[in-house]
């Protein structure tokens, strides 16, 4: 590791598993003090423990990103523990089982949009004052190829991820001159416990399209963490409002 985030204070949501955990571990290995946020307190603590065992600095914080009061308390706790925020990674997200609109209940719609889009809004709004007070920073939002194309999820997930990309661009325009860079990551299929469950239950056509990507495989969470690290550190200093596709070639075929 090269210390690309040495001395930075990073808040990562969804840090208890999958891509969020991989990003938290990688950021800590690159020198960041990490606040690992997750709905599952035990999972957040497990991530923090993994980081500590490797010699890094981490604090576990429980949060429901879809709830404003919970987010406010979690960000306040993170700022207190870290002494500020330089990097925010909005990684928390849930899937909708590729449900089309006629199979999408109002409850499912609200749940997906609440976590995947409203969660990014709430966490960023809560964290941004601390970032601005510290002179700026970087925000990395987890979008998806479903933010560009159909069949990367169901109607709720696809709508949410389109929204995340729009939110990313607007925030980049609003706060770039104040020292805050905002960008998004748009993965294809990533091998996590959550996506494995969806693939096991998904339509054959969807599964076949995922397996037919030019890369010939799914991404590993650590590969997504590599891109998150680039967007979080100064190597990407001229990157503002971008939505980076990392999909093994899914969207080119």
UniProtKB/TrEMBL annotation:
The keyword tRNA-binding does not apply. CDD domains: SDR_c (cd05233). The keyword Transport does not apply. Gene3D superfamilies: NAD(P)-binding Rossmann-like Domain. GO terms for molecular function: oxidoreductase activity. It holds the Pfam family adh_short_C2. PROSITE patterns: ADH_SHORT. Keywords: Oxidoreductase. InterPro entries: NAD(P)-bd_dom_sf (IPR036291), Sc_DH/Rdtase_CS (IPR020904), SDR_fam (IPR002347). PANTHER family: DEHYDROGENASES, SHORT CHAIN (PTHR24321), ESTRADIOL 17-BETA-DEHYDROGENASE 8-RELATED (PTHR24321:SF8). Belongs to the short-chain dehydrogenases/reductases (SDR) family. This is 3-oxoacyl-[acyl-carrier protein] reductase. It comes from Herbiconiux ginsengi.
């Amino acid at each position: 590791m090269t210390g690309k985030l040495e001395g930075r204070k990073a808040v990562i949501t969804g840090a208890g598993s999958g891509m969020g955990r991989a990003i938290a571990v990688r950021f800590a290995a690159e020198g960041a003090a990490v606040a690992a946020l997750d709905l599952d307190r035990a999972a957040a603590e497990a991530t923090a423990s993994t980081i500590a065992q490797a010699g890094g600095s981490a604090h576990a914080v429980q949060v429901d990103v879809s709830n404003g009061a919970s987010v406010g308390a979690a960000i306040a706790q993170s700022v207190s523990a870290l002494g500020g925020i330089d990097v925010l990674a909005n990684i928390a997200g849930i899937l909708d089982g590729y449900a089309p609109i006629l199979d999408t209940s109002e409850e499912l719609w609200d749940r997906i949009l609440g976590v995947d889009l409203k969660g990014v809004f709430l966490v960023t709004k809560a964290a941004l004052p601390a970032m601005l007070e510290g002179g700026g920073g970087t925000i990395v939002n987890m979008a998806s190829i479903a933010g560009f194309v159909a069949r990367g999820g169901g109607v709720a997930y696809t709508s949410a991820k389109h929204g995340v990309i729009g939110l990313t661009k607007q925030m980049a325009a609003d706060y770039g001159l104040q020292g805050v860079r905002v960008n998004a990551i748009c993965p294809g299929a990533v091998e996590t416990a959550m996506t494995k469950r969806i693939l096991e239950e998904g339509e054959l056509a969807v599964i076949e399209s995922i397996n037919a990507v030019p890369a010939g495989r799914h991404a590993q969470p650590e590969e997504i963490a590599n891109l998150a690290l680039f967007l979080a550190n100064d190597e990407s200093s001229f990157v503002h409002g971008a939505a980076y596709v990392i999909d093994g070639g899914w969207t080119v075929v």
